[in-house]
């Protein structure tokens, strides 16, 4: 089906769809352990994405290429590609994708025995996930405020102070024993 998607994208003459299909195929081969094929598809997708200025597809191709290179024991070059991908994704504000990239980088480095590099990648992943959770929790608490006392509007200063206190409590919960 991946070959069919790539053929369809080529038939349509869509470089965006072609580079995306190549990235999806590369990801499949990464998961199958065929790192040389993943590298080849990633390089093809990267060239196409760059030629047509598709930043998100370029970031995806760089990521897949980096992971493939790490698995092919070209660890430093692979890390460099993944970090380029992360920088592009950060510039686009794709923080969830950045966190996932750090996690996959950590997994790849761990498999290759670069435990210090893996630890750094996992720590960055954890920091990003923690930040995302704090932001989501803050939004949820602030959104719920009008329901706590419907007679007062969300602009009431005491509600904001209570929300800030609630956020501090929620942020401490994961560090408590048994949670």
Which features does this protein show?
179 residues, mainly alpha, 0% strand
Question: How would you describe this structure to a colleague?
Answer:
The structure is a single chain. With 179 residues, this protein is an all-alpha fold. The chain contains 8 helices and no strands. The protein has helices at residues 2-12, 15-32, 35-51, 55-71, 75-91, 95-111, 115-148, 157-172.
What portion of the residues fall into strands of 2 or more residues?
Answer: under 5%
Q: Quickly count the helices.
A: 8
How do the SSEs run, as a string of H and E?
Answer: HHHHHHHH
Structural class: mainly alpha
Backbone shape: globular
Distance between the termini: 43 Å
Give the proportion of residues in helices. Answer: over 70%
Oligomer: single chain
Number of strands: 0
Q: Using only CA atoms, what is the Rg?
A: 21 Å
Low-confidence stretches: none
Sheet with the most strands? none
Average pLDDT works out at 84
In short:
This protein has 179 residues and is mainly α. The protein has 8 helices and no strands.
How do the strands and helices of this protein lay out in sequence?
Blueprint: H1 2-12, H2 15-32, H3 35-51, H4 55-71, H5 75-91, H6 95-111, H7 115-148, H8 157-172
Helix pairs in contact: 1-2, 2-3, 2-4, 3-4, 4-5, 4-6, 5-6, 6-7, 7-8
